[in-house]
Design brief:
- It is built from five helices and 16 strands.
- The chain is an alpha+beta fold.
- Strand 2 and strand 3 form a beta hairpin.
Length: 308
């Protein structure tokens, strides 16, 4: 069993409008945009990162907004809900706030004793705000007060036809089954960061998801540094997983592999962080380009959709 993985690093999804996506996460949810860069493989598409003040691993939601992309179809083989932690006693305030912004499909429930507010993002992507005792400091620069601000990612909910193989993989990655009720199995990585929870939802009769705007592209797990990442990669390869080489993503190093249930997993390093090319006070303000795309700057600055 691996011990290097410390919970989630980030979740990356697809969107259809950069401006609408940016407005939702900064104005509605009150997160900070910590990086404005581009998709390494499609540089005419933004890669936008939202999180806490520094973009701490475990707080970050990222998006590839492909202009006018068709909406995805929910189903199995994907992350169906990304959940964020909020302070206890703030669910009502959040539900009211979301309603003032005409957010779609707001509802309430309780899972494993935790109160949740569920809602849709601009492209039908499903989210939850979960009341917890999370002590992480929120970003308060976008008009959401500290007493109700989002603390970071709480968990990710994977929809699967059969949880068995994915559950065994997560156990190999250091997760342990914490609770189980009906068709939901909760796994937690002990000694990890605050984004340490994965819920597996088994839906044997559901159709397979079709990826598009509103779909999660991949989910990333955090390791401390490149040395720990190489240990994880070697262990996965030795166990028979098809893992990519290490890829430099400027703000972290990444490896990827596809899970039995169809979800794309990434293992990302906590180093070097989002302040490697911007002062923390100004994160997410300037367009930052990977070195291989810097020669395209003039064209990209004309083509990319203004965010405000």
């Amino acid at each position: 069993m691996l011990t290097q993985i410390k919970g989630l690093h980030h979740v990356t999804s697809l969107a259809s409008s950069a401006r609408e996506n940016n407005g939702f996460f900064t104005n509605v949810l009150g997160l900070r945009r910590v990086k404005k860069t581009v998709n390494f493989d499609a540089p005419d598409v933004y890669h936008l990162y939202y999180g806490d003040e520094a973009g701490t691993p475990g707080t970050v939601m990222t998006y590839f907004p492909f202009p006018h992309a068709a909406r995805g179809r929910p189903g199995t083989g994907e992350v169906g809900i990304t959940a964020f932690a909020i302070p206890k006693g703030t669910a009502n305030a959040w539900a009211e706030r979301l309603a003032t912004f005409d957010v779609a499909r707001i509802s309430r429930d309780t899972r494993f004793g935790e109160t949740r507010v569920l809602f849709d993002g601009p492209d039908g992507d499903r989210f939850a705000l979960v009341e917890t005792d999370d002590t992480r400091a929120p970003w308060t620069g976008n008009g959401v007060s500290a007493d109700m601000g989002i603390r970071g990612i709480h968990s990710a909910d994977m929809r699967l036809r059969d949880e068995g193989a994915t559950a065994e993989l997560l156990k190999f990655m250091g997760y342990e089954v914490a609770e189980k009720k009906d068709n939901i199995t909760r796994l937690i990585v002990p000694g990890g960061n605050a984004a340490n929870t994965i819920d597996l939802e088994t839906l044997p009769g559901a159709s397979h998801a079709a990826q598009g705007a509103g779909s999660v592209h991949h989910i990333a797990f955090a390791v401390e540094n490149r040395a720990r990442q190489l240990e994880v990669r070697e262990a996965l390869l030795d166990t028979g997983w098809q893992v990519t080489p290490v890829i430099d993503r400027d703000y972290f190093w990444a490896i990827y592999f596809r899970t039995p249930g169809g979800v794309l997993f990434e293992i990302a390093t906590n180093e070097p962080g989002f302040d490697r090319d911007e002062d923390t006070r100004h994160l997410g303000e300037a367009l930052k380009l990977p070195s291989q795309h810097e020669h395209l700057r003039a064209a990209l600055e004309k083509r990319l959709e203004p965010l405000a």
